[in-house]
Amino acid sequence: MFKFHYRLERSAIGLVAFIILVASIGGFIEIAPLFTIDETVEKAEDMRVFTPLEVAGRNIYIREGCYACHSQMIRTLRDEVDRYGPYSLAVESQYDHPQLWGSKRTGPDLARLGNKYSDSWHTAHLYNPRDLVPQSKMPAYRWLLRDQLRTDDLGNQLAALRAVGVPYTDEQIANAARDAYGQANPDSAEAPGVAERYGEATNIRAFDGNQGPLTDMDALVAYLQMLGTLTDAAFTTETAEAE
Ligand code: HEC
């Protein structure tokens, strides 16, 4: 063995060839799983895309760094499934660009947060977490209720997501700003279009407690209330039943 290496080091070409061989074994092991990607990502016929308001909320989630303390991925471990619900499937992050799985949990996982609390709970909690959870370490995000949401760029945001594979229609892109307003203003003329374009199951409510002009709070709460509700796949696949 050592003799072999001793001789190999004396032949420059032989050494280079051997390095390439060994490095390509490592490379192949990393790349091989990608050949089965079509079978790895489950199919979910009921999977819907994010609404423009949810996209705006997602951008705020990224802007405020929520991912630094919260993960959005439930692992297959028993204690996680008991605490948070069925473990996350690849298809559930299919339209997440970039994905927000996170790598640290100072606070709890949020992958199945949708419908767990009321909108007013979220609004109050984000305004000051300690009003609801006295021992909370989470920062207060008071400006979310004050700041008006920018919506004129949402059409471009959807178009950018379409460029990386999210199946937005021309109609959804053209109506992005209108749909964002409608989703948080259930009594407005814009509201019915949201259900038409994104499905009856879409939440259409005054998320921050007030109808009228949109705030950052409307967008973020709409996003949080949607988490884990885009598809039932995790609750219906064989793997989930086996749990
Ligand atoms: C410094 C770390 C930290 C940051 C940053 C942070 N959180 Fe939290 N979060 C926590 C902790 C700790 C808890 C648990 C205590 C509580 O409920 O307040 C929590 C709880 C929550 C809960 C309740 C979850 C549940 O299932 O009970 C939600 C929702 C939440 N955070 C959303 C957010 C959002 C949205 C942001 C970004 C605007 C954010 N957090 C930023 C630490 C953080």
Automatic annotation (TrEMBL):
<keyword id="KW-0408">Iron</keyword>
<dbReference type="GO" id="GO:0020037">
    <property type="term" value="F:heme binding"/>
</dbReference>
<dbReference type="InterPro" id="IPR009056">
    <property type="entry name" value="Cyt_c-like_dom"/>
</dbReference>
<dbReference type="Pfam" id="PF02433">
    <property type="entry name" value="FixO"/>
</dbReference>
<feature type="transmembrane region" description="Helical">
    <location>
        <begin position="12"/>
        <end position="35"/>
    </location>
</feature>
<dbReference type="InterPro" id="IPR036909">
    <property type="entry name" value="Cyt_c-like_dom_sf"/>
</dbReference>
<dbReference type="InterPro" id="IPR003468">
    <property type="entry name" value="Cyt_c_oxidase_monohaem-su/FixO"/>
</dbReference>
<keyword id="KW-0472">Membrane</keyword>
<dbReference type="GO" id="GO:0046872">
    <property type="term" value="F:metal ion binding"/>
</dbReference>
<dbReference type="GO" id="GO:0009055">
    <property type="term" value="F:electron transfer activity"/>
</dbReference>
<keyword id="KW-0479">Metal-binding</keyword>
<keyword id="KW-0349">Heme</keyword>
<protein>
    <submittedName>
        <fullName>Cytochrome-c oxidase, cbb3-type subunit II</fullName>
    </submittedName>
</protein>
<feature type="domain" description="Cytochrome c">
    <location>
        <begin position="52"/>
        <end position="228"/>
    </location>
</feature>
<keyword id="KW-1133">Transmembrane helix</keyword>
<keyword id="KW-0812">Transmembrane</keyword>
